Amino acid sequence: MQNSAWKKQKSCWTSPLIPMTPKKPQQWLQVVGHAGSFHVGDYGTLLKRFCEGEQQCYLRLMEDTLRPFVPAYHGVVQRGEQDYNMMDNLLTHFNTPAIMDCKMGSRTYLEEELVVARERPQPRNDMYEKMVAVDPEAPTVQERAQQAVLKTRYMQWRETLSSTASLGFRVEGFRKANGECQTNFKRTKSREQVVEALDSFVESNTNIVWGYLRRLKQLRQVLEASHFFRTHEVVGSSLLFVHDWTGKTGVWMIDFGKTVSLPPHRTLDHRTPWAEGNREDGYLWGLDNLIDVLANMLPLT
Ligand code: I3P
Fold this sequence. Notes:
With 301 residues, the protein is α+β, with helices and mostly antiparallel strands. The protein has 11 helices and 13 strands. It has helices spanning 2-5, 52-61, 111-119, 125-134, 141-146, 151-161, 164-167, 191-202, 206-225, 227-230, 283-295; strands at 17-21, 24-30, 38-40, 45-49, 73-79, 82-88, 98-104, 169-175, 181-182, 232-234, 238-243, 249-254, 259-261. The strands form 4 sheets. Strands 9-8-7-11-12 form a 5-stranded antiparallel β-sheet. A 4-stranded antiparallel β-sheet has the order 3-4-6-5, with helices on one face. Strands 1-2 form a two-stranded antiparallel sheet. It is globular, with a radius of gyration of 19 Å. The protein binds D-MYO-inositol-1,4,5-triphosphate. D-MYO-inositol-1,4,5-triphosphate is lined by residues 3-4, 8, 10, 108, 130, 151, 155, 158, 236, 257-258. This is Kinase. InterPro entries: IPK, IPK_sf. One of its GO terms (molecular function) is inositol-1,4,5-trisphosphate 3-kinase activity.
């Protein structure tokens, strides 16, 4: 995997603070993603550490009906020795925004990762440590002996521990306008727990929920007709939710490092349950559930 080639340290919400725009240096934001992967570019742009697979996706997305639902892509720039994909900073037009990352889909690893794990298993100690930190009982006897787990096993465990397996999406983390960050959602699994997390993010503001719901329904309509979406396995991709005190809301698709095109003439419906070989990712099933959960947070009219 191109993306895994980077020695990534995952820390969604502990990544460096980055100035929002050159014009407003007093405003700061935290960027979702692997630490050190992002920089602020000039004129409301964001630089994300280069990944060729992701670049290819952005190039195709710029020609697809999904274009309004992803950050505009502006090509590759170099900073020092490192290349970056340059895209719009989605927070630029918000005023002290609150942001949330929801990872979409019922599966968070690619089928090709599963094949590699079988052919060349490389158990990881860091993932073992992350696993026991959440649940000391989770590792098998063998994993305990090795003090290591396979990445695919770790990812599957994370999926069933959270709402990924049961609802097709999970809350990864959010930051409220006051700077308060919440990232402790590994065990947020039931509908009720998800509602609690979402309600905390929107601070019980139903106007914000309405705004998100409208946008997600538009996104679903566009996804159902999108050529790009039909022809790609979309794994580990997130929806970025942004709102501010003016009531402005936005949702965009981000993170295409693990989005891969299908062989010619193959398509996905993104709702059929996954069985190895069918490459379904459960993205639309997850979006259906997310829309349903949000709709149920609104008062009955
Ligand atoms: C990480 C999370 C990321 C994954 C990363 C995991 O686990 O599943 O999505 O990166 O793998 O460590 P957690 O959220 O529990 O910290 P990819 O999606 O890019 O595979 P990595 O450690 O190999 O980067």
